[in-house]
Amino acid sequence: MKFLHVMIRVKDIDKSLKFYQELFDMNLVNEMELEDSKLYFLSDEDGQTQIELTYNFDTPENGCIFNKKYGEIWRKNEEI
């Protein structure tokens, strides 16, 4: 099984980017601004794993929107 992609909602994009870039050696590969949010895509060196950090412009103080801090997890399983 391979971990492919996860989307995580964040309340402090600067701290979150620094965390994943420094601790996990992820590279910022793309950004996308939407009407109510901005998405940041980070990838590992070989491009096999991607983290999508979602910053909603109206993020509450506790960082929780819709009672969910993550939105999706993708994985690859050769046995299915």
What does this structure look like?
By secondary structure, this protein is mainly beta. It has one domain (2-76): 2,3-Dihydroxybiphenyl 1,2-Dioxygenase, domain 1 (Roll). Helix content is 14%, strand content 45%. The chain has 1 helix and 5 strands, in the order E-H-E-E-E-E. A 5-stranded mixed β-sheet has the order 2-3-4-1-5, with helices on one face. The protein is globular, with a radius of gyration of 13 Å. The mean pLDDT is 80.
Give a brief description.
The chain is mainly beta and 80 residues long. It has 1 helix and 5 strands. The protein is globular.
Name the descriptors.
mainly beta; five-stranded mixed sheet; 14% helix
Largest sheet: 5 strands, mixed
Biggest sheet strand line-up: 2-3-4-1-5
Fraction in helix:
10-25%
CATH topology: 2,3-Dihydroxybiphenyl 1,2-Dioxygenase, domain 1
- Residues in β-strands, percent: over 45%
Cα(first) to Cα(last) distance is 10 Å
**Outline type:** globular
Mind telling me the CATH superfamily name? 2,3-Dihydroxybiphenyl 1,2-Dioxygenase, domain 1
Radius of gyration computed on alpha carbons: 13 Å
How many DSSP H or I helices? Answer: 1
The average pLDDT is 80
Please state the second-level CATH architecture: Roll
Domain count: the total is: 1
* Poorly predicted runs: none
Structural category is mainly beta
Topology, number of strands: 5
SSE succession: EHEEEE
